[in-house]
Amino acid sequence: MVDRRIRKTRDALAEAVLALAAERDFASVTVADITRRAGIGYATFFRHYPGKDELLADVADLLIDELLGLMLPAFLADDTAGASLALCRFVDARRPICRALLAGGAEGRIRGEMIRRASARALALDLPQPTGLPATLIIAHAVSSITAMLGWWLEQGETMPAEVMAAVLDRLALAPIRSGG
Amino acid sequence: MVDRRIRKTRDALAEAVLALAAERDFASVTVADITRRAGIGYATFFRHYPGKDELLADVADLLIDELLGLMLPAFLADDTAGASLALCRFVDARRPICRALLAGGAEGRIRGEMIRRASARALALDLPQPTGLPATLIIAHAVSSITAMLGWWLEQGETMPAEVMAAVLDRLALAPIRSGG
Amino acid sequence: MVDRRIRKTRDALAEAVLALAAERDFASVTVADITRRAGIGYATFFRHYPGKDELLADVADLLIDELLGLMLPAFLADDTAGASLALCRFVDARRPICRALLAGGAEGRIRGEMIRRASARALALDLPQPTGLPATLIIAHAVSSITAMLGWWLEQGETMPAEVMAAVLDRLALAPIRSGG
Amino acid sequence: MVDRRIRKTRDALAEAVLALAAERDFASVTVADITRRAGIGYATFFRHYPGKDELLADVADLLIDELLGLMLPAFLADDTAGASLALCRFVDARRPICRALLAGGAEGRIRGEMIRRASARALALDLPQPTGLPATLIIAHAVSSITAMLGWWLEQGETMPAEVMAAVLDRLALAPIRSGG
DNA sequence: CTCTAATCGAGACGGTACGTCGCGTCTTACG
DNA sequence: CGTAAGACGCGACGTACCGTCTCGATTAGAG
Fold first, then answer.
1. What is the pLDDT of residue D2?
2. What are the residue ranges spanned by the domains of chain D?
3. Which nucleotides of E are covered by protein (CB under 7 A)?
4. Measured between alpha carbons, how far is D63 from D82 in angstroms, rounded to an integer?
5. Would you call A111 exposed, middle or buried from its count of C-beta atoms within 10 A (0-12, 13-18, 19+)?
6. Confidence of residue B36 (pLDDT cuts 50, 70, 90)
7. Closest in C136, C137, C172 to D141, CB measured
8. What is d(CA D77, CA C70) in angstroms, rounded to the nearest whole number?
């Protein structure tokens, strides 16, 4: 169905871009760096992606979708603590890739993409706003705060357990959304 | 004391970079764009700044310092609502420049710079951590959440008054830092 | 074997640099002038040559080699008159290119290159020095005198036939090397 | 008469340009190099000379005039050997400056200037051409050959006495002009 | 098992922006 | 109040990447 060569090339690109984004500022990573690392031809890159940003987005998309799918149910059930915990365990189990996406120079793009996708989902669900605040504002707050704190967490090494981090996340970023009002 | 020509050139550069950062993605702004807008020679730019990022940082620094100086007293007095209000009024009174810094493509850099400076100040003050959480984590959360929400606010036009925004900011980002524990 | 695109680009560059060197002072010719004339991209130039001097040298090299190959046999056979005549006819048949190389601002570089190559050849041949003078001195004299006179000749237009010029060349520059001693 | 300060500045410039021309390629010497070396202000340079070429020309002019004045009498008296000897002794007595002018990157300009001035003198004198050859051609030959050989000589260090060099010069460059015909 | 079309590597190319350097002019702070 | 110091506009330089393109060589998967 899908040519095996294509899959192989894309996998190599994904691995390469993550490795490079993890080890230095994403803006300074060039397409040639990626292709060299992936062991593929320079022009071949553009047969798959229009640019490095799109490659990164493609790599991140799966993760973001998975993550949102994981958090939304708990969040909608007002179980912000559960959502936080699910999130932190998810991230903890994928430290290298999350580190690449959240603690490198790519963070800005990732956050933007997450806000976009979360807003789209919220719009599609047409959820009620018990807090009386615009959904896009809440999302901007939640996503920004969470990605910032996760980035901080991942930069600390393995010093703080997922459960503790989840509690912090919940207390500072998620619970305030529900409480009060 | 300082050559008048130098001041004039720097002022022109500051004005130009703000105008350009406001009207489109900062990453797509070139040094040539800035110098053209400022009416100065291309090479002259580099006699003042190593690159456009540094120019932006220089422009933002004053604002950031002023802003931190404004918020800190209220924040340290546990008056997060007062700090929020001071912040929103400050921003409201400087919409164009804040919009350029927070709602354009420059947002990532500005946030990074703010986190850096705020962390430095916190370290210098050696403030007690009543919440038991690391200062750098709190700052990452607060700065990220606040800049994200302020960016959202500035993008909405003048639809929401500063007082309302301040309440939101306080409830979602600042108050949670103090409360609980 | 050699990429056809490369050959095409180099040919275009060679044509362009000769045309420009012929019509004005070589020092005032810029790389951009050359690439514009050749119809190639500016950066492409540097994929082929480190600078305009090297391009000119490359263009001149073929000619110089051919010319040295033409003169040496007669010269070594003590037939300086024959060598002069061969030289003048050779130049006469290639007036435009020789004019570009000898009567423009490129003259200094060309002379230097000729001295270098001729010295290398002389060294390789390890020829006896019947005159008792160092080969490099003789070469400096011969090349300088000849290029100067040829430059003068080419600037006069077609007023003096090759045979006459050859006689002058022989009498002033070449014959004195052999005679006496 | 002439402001002493002006003379002092010019002398400093002359000294500086000669020193720099001697120690490296003249084309790579910048005006800032010269002024730094001379210990004068950058802008001051342009109050005295339009550019570094003109400074060099000014410095060389005196020498060239002196030299031509020295050689001409002997040359016009058909005493080419005497002219050669006068020349070589003159140069030998001023090795550093001559080296700077003849063996550095300035050689091309100096030769051009010498040809120009010698041609002007020849034209002014309206001397008969016993050889039947155009004066400008002879001058081109003589000046080029001589400067080339002197450059070679100066580069050898002090290995060859002026008298020997003069004999070579006479035999290869000057005598052939007179002899034959 | 073959053949045919898609995919690949390699890398030349036209561009755009960069940051540097030197020039020659013009202003300005300072002695 | 003149002058050195140096900021400035200008323009060429050489570099780095981008995204497009043309080559053959290889290889997958349909017939």
1. 59
2. 4-53, 56-178
3. 6-30
4. 19
5. buried
6. very high
7. C172
8. 39
Outline where C24-179 has alpha helix (H). Answer: 31-38, 42-48, 52-76, 80-93, 95-102, 107-125, 135-155, 162-169, 175-178
Over pLDDT 70: what percentage of chain B?
96
Are the C-beta atoms of residues B116 and B57 closer than 8 Å to each other?
no
Give the CA-trace dihedral at B5, B7, B13, B16, to 10 degrees. Answer: -100
C-alpha closest to that of A177 among A131, A143, A145: A131
Cα(D84)–Cα(D164) distance, integer angstroms: 10
CA A141 to chain centre: 15
Q: What average pLDDT is seen over chain A?
A: 90
Give the D-side interface with C, CB within 8 Å: 107-108, 133, 136-138, 140-141, 143-145, 147-149, 151-153, 168, 171-173, 175-177, 180
Place of tokens 């080890």: A23
Interval B131-180: pLDDT, tens:
788 999 999 999 999 999 999 999 999 999 999 999 999 999 999 998 76
Instruction: Read off the pTM.
Output: 0.86
CATH domain B4-51 topology = Arc Repressor Mutant, subunit A (1.10.10)
Task: Domain C4-52: give its CATH architecture.
Answer: Orthogonal Bundle (1.10)
Q: Please provide the CATH number assigned to the domain covering D4-53.
A: 1.10.10.60
Percentage of chain A beyond pLDDT 70 is 96
